[in-house]
Design goal:
Distance between the termini: 31 Å
Largest sheet: 13 strands, mixed
Strand content: 35-45%
Helix content: 10-25%
Shape: elongated
Order of helices and strands: EEHEEHEHEHEEEEEEEEE
Length: about 220
C-alpha cells in the first residue's frame, strides 16, 4: 500500500497518535499546509497551490521543496490539487492532515472528497489531531481508538442496518434517518470499535481520548 499524507491549511494539534499515523507516508503539502511539516517531523516531496496563503517566511524555510504553482483563478482548491497529485503518484490510501476546522465550506468539501475516495476504494482519514473523520459505507470496518474516546455517527441521507460494537451504547441493525442525533456522542469502551452498515452512507467522527503527555504541539 502506498500511503500519502496531504498537509492542508486547517488547524492541527500534533499528537503522538497523529505522528504515528503519518510516519512512513509520502507527503504532499497544499499551500499553507506546509507549516505543519516540522511539527509532524516530516517533509514534503511536493508543494502545490497558488501560494496565496503561504507566507514569505514559510516559503524561505523550504527553498528546496519542488513546487507545482497554480494560478489563483482556478476551479479546484489547493487541497484537491494535492490529492490529485498524490493519486497520480500511485497513492492507495490518504491522510488529510489539517482538513477539519477552519472554514466550514472547506471542511465539508474535504469530508465529501473523503467519501468519494472511499467509493473508489481509497481509504482516507481526515484528522485535526483532536478530531478524526472516517467514511462510512455499506460493509464492516474496525476503528482502533483509545477507550474513553468520544465517537459520533452522522447519517447522510439515512443509514440502514447500523451495527455498533465496542461502545457504551451499542446498536444492532438500527435504522438512522437523516438528521437524527441518536448516534451522537457515544463513548468507546474497547480498544477496537466494530461498525457494520447494510445500506446508506455517513461519516464517523472520533475524538481520541488523550493520555498524559500525548499532545506534542499545536499548529495554527
Amino acid at each position: 500500500m502506498s500511503q500519502f499524507t496531504i498537509l492542508l491549511g486547517g488547524d492541527l494539534k500534533v499528537t503522538r497518535r497523529l505522528i504515528r499515523q503519518v510516519a512512513g507516508t509520502r507527503v504532499i503539502a497544499a499551500d499553507s499546509g506546509m507549516r505543519h511539516a516540522a511539527a509532524l517531523r516530516t517533509d514534503a516531496e511536493l508543494w502545490v497551490g497558488d501560494f496565496d496563503s503561504a507566507e514569505a517566511d514559510l516559503q524561505r524555510r523550504h527553498p528546496q521543496t519542488p513546487r507545482d504553482v497554480h494560478p489563483a483563478d482556478k476551479d479546484r482548491t489547493d487541497g484537491e490539487i494535492a490529492i490529485d497529485a498524490a493519486l497520480a503518484k500511485g497513492a492507495s490510501a490518504l491522510i488529510l492532515a489539517g482538513g477539519l476546522g477552519g472554514q466550514t465550506d472547506h471542511a465539508l468539501a474535504h469530508v465529501m472528497q473523503m467519501l468519494a475516495l472511499a467509493l473508489r476504494g481509497i481509504p482516507t482519514l481526515i484528522s485535526s489531531g483532536s478530531e478524526e473523520a472516517y467514511p462510512l459505507l455499506p460493509g464492516r470496518r474496525r476503528l482502533e481508538l483509545p477507550p474513553g474516546s468520544r465517537l459520533s455517527v452522522i447519517a447522510l441521507g439515512g443509514l440502514t442496518g447500523l451495527d455498533l460494537e465496542g461502545v457504551r451504547w451499542p446498536l444492532a441493525k438500527a435504522d438512522i434517518p437523516l438528521g437524527s442525533t441518536r448516534t451522537l456522542s457515544n463513548v468507546t469502551v474497547e480498544p477496537v470499535v466494530e461498525i457494520g452498515l447494510a445500506a446508506g452512507s455517513g461519516i464517523v467522527l472520533a475524538y481520541p481520548a488523550e493520555e498524559a503527555g500525548r499532545e506534542v504541539a499545536h499548529c495554527e
